[in-house]
């Protein structure tokens, strides 16, 4: 499995960006997907996750970010609205073959993309 994240860039406070993650190598619909981020000097943290049963968001992005997936295109997306300077980070997509009833919000994903940088200016 290979993951390729894209769509990062510079946005102003209150602006929007849409991240994409292209999946290759296996049957995409069999994998749960997640988005994480890592700000400078901080640990990587969960942002959003989606499996065949549920979608989950970190409290800090709930109501502003929306995760989706397109099984036909083998891709997952993260629509980020109402961006804040504290959203500045490298964003990573991740995949796991483990399809639990609940969304995995920890680092227990099997595959990781290379990251895409999101910078939000004040």
Low-confidence stretches: none
Run of helices and strands: EEEEEEEEEEE
Mean pLDDT across all amino acids: 96
By oligomeric state, this entry counts as single chain
First-residue to last-residue Cα separation: 37 Å
Sketch the major β-sheet: 7 strands, mixed
Radius of gyration: 13 Å
Summing up helix and strand content along with how strands pair, one would put the structural category as mainly beta
Helical region count? 0
Into which percentage range does the β-strand content fall? over 45%
How would you describe the overall organization of this protein?
The chain is an all-beta fold. It has strands at residues 2-6, 9-12, 17-24, 32-38, 45-50, 55-57, 65-70, 75-80, 89-96, 111-112, 116-121. A hairpin with a 6-residue loop joins strand 4 (32-38) and strand 5. Strands 2, 4, 5, 6, 9, 10 and 11 form a seven-stranded mixed beta sheet that branches. It has no helices and eleven strands. The mean pLDDT is 96.
State the main characteristics.
122 residues; globular; mainly beta; 4-stranded antiparallel beta sheet; 7-stranded mixed beta sheet; 11 strands
